[in-house]
Design goal:
By secondary structure, the chain is mainly β. It has one domain: Pnp Oxidase, Chain A, CATH 2.30.110. The chain is built from 2 helices and 9 strands, in the order E-E-E-E-E-H-E-H-E-E-E. The radius of gyration is 20 Å and the shape is globular. The model has no long low-confidence stretch (mean pLDDT about 90).
Length: about 150
Amino acid sequence: MAEYIPPVGFHFKVEFSGIKTKKNDHQFQSVSGLSIDLETEEVAEGGENRFKHKIPVRTKYPNLVLKRGMLMDSGVIKWCRDALENYNFKPIDLTVSLLVKDAKSLVTGDAEPLQTWNIAHAYPVKWNIGDFNAEENKLVIETLELSYNYFKIL
């Protein structure tokens, strides 16, 4: 009897469309912000004092946060800096793909997407470089925060 094994969350890639990317621009340490919140509005009904009706209004998406070791030559960072430093905003679409981790993909390096999220109309709102500390031996982490309109699961 085969049992369901949930996918691992450490094998994924991020692909950007609409900008020139470099060799390692798809590799990130972490991705967060793939969630949807439904905003509601409370409506009081006359004569009904036990509760208020909650009416759905719109969906809300938090910022997408991407973290990785700092790259010296990155097309994504050039796009980000152009927006934040020069106010030249060019919204793009990007995809986050959760990849299948199996023995074949370990050998060939090619992994099939298990699930893909298509993020629409993303643009940078924050770029952060991690702290420098002479007393610690760790990588310099850069964090990109992107605002986007919505995502669809493909």
